[in-house]
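2024-03-11 09:14:02 INFO worker-7 job=invfold-0412 stage=load source=structure_tokens
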């Protein structure tokens, strides 16, 4: 049974588990090139993981974005999708944004995942665009 959401930094041993899950989901499953999956923002980001035993089964990261925060790399292990882990991660992002006084939360959603983010109060903004060969839409959740 998956546990609580743990905030970590990239110097945590759990970060390796987060990267492993991201590789499995984005590179293997979705064919995102490995060399762009980890970018220069990763080192300083706030990362969040959910463990099942000692395995990372869900993760996301949050980076500063002007007076807003940007959510990214949201991934849930395939066999655990649809069980509420993604929702719990995004609710944590919303809590963090409120606690930090961020104006908004923004993200680039895969079009296929947009209905998931809409349920959490995000709305589409602007045109569709391509990222790593996958159609994306910018989504925003205003905090104030
Ligand atoms: N389309 C429509 N609705 C979706 C959805 C989708 N792709 N994914 C989840 N939902 C809905 C669920 O049905 C649920 O609705 P409910 O509250 O009315 O029951 C709600 O969103 C929350 O679902 P949850 O179980 O918390 O979602 P999840 O744990 O499966 O996480 C993702 C959602 C997108 C993070 C997960 O599917 C995933 O890791 N996908 C692969 C990686 C990816 O594409 N990440 C997003 C990059 S932008």
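2024-03-11 09:14:09 INFO worker-7 stage=emit residues=144
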């Amino acid at each position: 049974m998956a546990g609580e959401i743990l905030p970590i930094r990239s110097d945590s041993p759990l970060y390796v588990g987060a990267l492993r899950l991201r590789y499995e989901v984005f590179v293997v499953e979705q064919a995102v090139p490995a060399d762009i999956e980890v970018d220069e923002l990763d080192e300083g980001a706030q990362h969040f993981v959910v463990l099942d035993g000692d395995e990372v089964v869900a993760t996301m990261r949050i980076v500063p974005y002007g007076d807003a925060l940007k959510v990214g790399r949201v991934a849930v292990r395939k066999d655990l999708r649809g069980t509420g882990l993604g929702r719990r991660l995004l609710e944590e992002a919303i809590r963090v944004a409120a606690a930090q006084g961020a104006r908004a939360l923004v993200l680039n959603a895969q079009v296929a995942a947009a209905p998931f983010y809409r349920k959490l109060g995000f709305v589409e903004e602007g045109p569709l665009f391509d990222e790593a060969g996958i159609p994306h839409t910018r989504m925003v959740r205003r905090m104030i």
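2024-03-11 09:14:09 INFO worker-7 stage=report msg="The chain is about 30% helix and 35% strand."
2024-03-11 09:14:10 INFO worker-7 job finished
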